[in-house]
Structures are given as structure tokens and as C-alpha cells.
Write a sequence for this structure.
């Protein structure tokens, strides 16, 4: 069961992978709640019977830092320790106060061997501790701590075309998240500091300025990605579902050199066993659905 906290609600999703069929959503809910209230999590656990599941929760933007570092030439057992010292001075808090994990960035298999890069993810110990204590109080077993980039990667993997790279852009109140994936792997990501509420506002002039900013960020990010990963052909940009009044797809389609489309969650997931889950609720559960697709414990 994936649990995604926001300042005023909690999103939950459970997904079962079905061979040769769309992933089956067996639970999906959005509950209005203050996620800092431990009693709320305890009540959610009882109401949704979360103790039956292994649970994962995703950190929010601002609760962690994700950096690209050169992989140290050390045995696997010493990798995290070596990466920790490479991050010294790169974080906005002391590295001694950090919980750290790493994720490999695959290199070009056809290129000569070269130093490989890693994603290093660091979060303050007190943030992890407080969240884990809340789950412990609610008697809910947590097996994985995730980040939005990897949840979004999981959804992108459902849409990728063989041998082609894909860009995926989503928005929530933390801002925009742009990810570049290939072969089900995360290669690059970028945060865009524009919350969804600014895109939904009725002031057309203000929205136009935000669209221009987004377009510029996308153009720069795609150029950078194609220079860094020249062995990957980027063939499209996909948008996560947005409120219909935003209408970002049309604007980007006329200003970018790759095809642009908006994903349809109904075509990607089977929601037939959950009732009362409308389009808005599915949109709000986007990252929770992605986190629920996890099939391995690499960020724990």
C-alpha cells in the first residue's frame, strides 16, 4: 500500500500487477487530513486495514535532496559510506544528519567503459524518524521509503516505447516534476517551481507567463538530456492528468519539437474493482499509484 502525504490530505493506493493485463487498482482513496497528526494515520490504518499490507510512503519535495555523483570505486558494501562523504558540503544540512541511499544511472552499453554515475538521495534523519514513528504508533509496517522521481519512473515504464526514451511531466502543489526514462530506468529529473494552483488560476496573462517558463525549462532540460545521453532517442513528452482548464498540452505541442500528449489513467490501470474513484481523485493519487507499482526495494 502506497501512502502519499500532502499538507492537507493523504492519498492511498494499492496496485496488483496482472500478467499480460493492465495493473489492477484494488484500493484508491484520498482522505482530507493533516498529515502531521499521528492520530489521523492511526485512524486511516484502522479504517483501511493497512496492517494487512506492506506499506511504502513517498517523501515530498523539500523533504529530501537528490544529487548526481560519480560512483566511488569501492566494494558494494562500502558504497553508501563512500557516497556519504562525497556529499559532504553538497547538502543544505550536515551530512552526518542524513539518511542516504543510492540509485544507479545506467550507462551506454555500447560505449567504452567509463566512470558511472549514481543518484544519491539524502533526507534529514529527523524527517525519516518522525514519519517512521507515526507509522509505528499506528502499528503499520513500512518496508520502503520512496521519492516522487521513482514513483513517476514506474508510471513512465508503462508508457515507454521499446528502444525510445520518454519525458514525463506532472504537477501538484509542490510544483512540477520532469523525469526522463529509458528501458524502465530513471536517467534524469528536474523540479519546476510552479505549483498546480498557479496553472489553474483564471488570470490568462499570469497563466501565459507560467506556460512560457515551463516551455523554457522543458527546452533546456531536453537539450541537456540529449547532450548527456546521446545514445537515447527521446521521442515524446507525456503529461500527467491536469485539470481541464489548464490546457497545457496544446501550448506545449505548438512550442516543442517532440510530440506531446496527456496520459489517460483509465487506459493504463484497471479501476474496475474500486468504486467512487473519479477523475479528480485519480489525478490526486498519481504519485501514490506510481509508488504502488514498485516491484523491488531499492530505496529503503
Amino acid at each position: 500500500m502506497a501512502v502519499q502525504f500532502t499538507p492537507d490530505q493523504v492519498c492511498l493506493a494499492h496496485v496488483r500487477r496482472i500478467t499480460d493485463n493492465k495493473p489492477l487498482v484494488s484500493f484508491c482513496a484520498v482522505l482530507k487530513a493533516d498529515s502531521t497528526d499521528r492520530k489521523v494515520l492511526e485512524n486511516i490504518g484502522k479504517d483501511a486495514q493497512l496492517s494487512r499490507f506492506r506499506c511504502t510512503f513517498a517523501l515530498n519535495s523539500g523533504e529530501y535532496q537528490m544529487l548526481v555523483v560519480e560512483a566511488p570505486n569501492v566494494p558494494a558494501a562500502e558504497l553508501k559510506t563512500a557516497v556519504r562523504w562525497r556529499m559532504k558540503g553538497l547538502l543544505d544540512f550536515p551530512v552526518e544528519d542524513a539518511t542516504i541511499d543510492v540509485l544507479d544511472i545506467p550507462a551506454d552499453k555500447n560505449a567504452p567503459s567509463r566512470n558511472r554515475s549514481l543518484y544519491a538521495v539524502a533526507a534529514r534523519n529527523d524527517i525519516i524518524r518522525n514519519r517512521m514513528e507515526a507509522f509505528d504508533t499506528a502499528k503499520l509496517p513500512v518496508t520502503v521509503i520512496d521519492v516522487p522521481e521513482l514513483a513517476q519512473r514506474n508510471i513512465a515504464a508503462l508508457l515507454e516505447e521499446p528502444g525510445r526514451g520518454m519525458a514525463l511531466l506532472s504537477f501538484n502543489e509542490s510544483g512540477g516534476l520532469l523525469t526522463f526514462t529509458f528501458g524502465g530506468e530513471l536517467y534524469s529529473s528536474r523540479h519546476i517551481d510552479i505549483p498546480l494552483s498557479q496553472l489553474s488560476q483564471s488570470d490568462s496573462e499570469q497563466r501565459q507567463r507560467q506556460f512560457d517558463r515551463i516551455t523554457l525549462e522543458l527546452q533546456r532540460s531536453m537539450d541537456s538530456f540529449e547532450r548527456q545521453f546521446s545514445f537515447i532517442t527521446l521521442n515524446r513528452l507525456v503529461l500527467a492528468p491536469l485539470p481541464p482548464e489548464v490546457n497545457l498540452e496544446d501550448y506545449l505541442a505548438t512550442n516543442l519539437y517532440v510530440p506531446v500528449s496527456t496520459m489517460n489513467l483509465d487506459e493504463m490501470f484497471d479501476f474496475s474493482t474500486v468504486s467512487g474513484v473519479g477523475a479528480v481523485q485519480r489525478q490526486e493519487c498519481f504519485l501514490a499509484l506510481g509508488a504502488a507499482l514498485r516491484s523491488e526495494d531499492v530505496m529503503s
The two ends are 15 Å apart (CA to CA). The mean pLDDT is 90. Residues 99 and 123 are 5 Å apart (CA to CA).
